[in-house]
Amino acid sequence: MVHCAVTLAESWQDRQRIDVQREMSLLTQRIVVRSLFGNDLADRDSRLGDAMAVVGREFGVELGVGLLTPSWVRTPARRRVLAAVATVDSEIDRLIRARQEAEREAEDGEDLLSRLLAARDEEGGRLTVRQVRDEAVTLWAAGHETTSTALTWCWYLLSASPNTRARLTAELDRVLAGRAPSYDDYDRLSWTRQIVKETLRLYPPAWILPPRTARDKVTLGGTPVPAGTTIWCSPWSTQRDPRWFPNPDVFRPERWDVERPENVPEHAWFPFGGGPRTCLGARFALVEMTLVLATLAQRFHLDVHPETVTPKAGLQLQPAAPLHATLHDRTAQTTR
Ligand code: HEM
């Protein structure tokens, strides 16, 4: 994670203007591919990233008017999704083939893909290539766009909060003293972690969870719920509820100060869902966001424009307009 973030920081220039979501998306994609598949997409990553962006965008349409259109109708949006899915499938197939090739050459595969290929059930059966591909696509898709969206919101919030940003750079200078962070720093970077947590409260990328169905009749918060009822839970609405978060619309990482806990009930903060189907990559994402933020903020300030943007609820909660940022290299400012 840090290696990918350092490489990105080295490619950035003082005063350069960037598309924040795109930079974060390419970064988290590289991270997930390297950590999970032990491979590098080299020049193909934008092809995969663009295909994924199409799926994300059109899925929002599908959640709207798409719900009223029978599933057999091939709308232009659905055709775009199918083409994008075919691209994703073929790119992931390519990664699997590369991995199988490496296995044959007896390279040691410690990554998740190698483990899926090597996995055997009780009878010695293995996963089919299609099953491996489906697992890989799930992890790849679940594992990068959510995190990049969260990081995009994070830069947006930081840009509008000079005091929070100043405290962040002070922590990074104190804990890291100019070196790149490592996994061991995760626990030491408490203010950085609080910023990440507060960002996920205000702008949970998964603003609504996959629905649950009540198996039995139950009463929830005084409301009787018959068996078979579909229940939608929204981190967006709960996490902005003043009953659990005073001044809920204000970005205040202080809420998460471990020394002065603010008594947030369990599951009032649930950007990763909850229960047996909770996000499999929650820890991965929290570590990733913290280390990426630490690596990049150590070197750069991002001034994000526009300064106010409304969120748009599609497959994820994303800024309705693209966010751009002007980079300010902190080291260039010191030497200037
Ligand atoms: C900020 C980043 C992320 C957010 C906000 C997020 C959010 C979520 C949410 C809300 C769910 C549904 C949970 C539920 O229904 O209760 C979920 C499921 C899942 N997530 Fe994440 N996720 C993130 C990052 C990741 C990463 C990095 C990975 C993998 C490396 C990942 C893998 C998965 C998987 C496999 C599931 C399905 C779990 C299951 O159904 O058993 N996620 N995620």
TrEMBL record:
It is an enzyme of class 1 (oxidoreductase). Signal peptide: none annotated. Pfam families: p450 (PF00067). Belongs to the cytochrome P450 family. This is Pentalenene oxygenase. Residues 85-119 form a coiled coil. The gene is ptlI_2. Keywords: Coiled coil, Heme, Iron, Metal-binding, Monooxygenase, Oxidoreductase. Heme binds at residue 279.
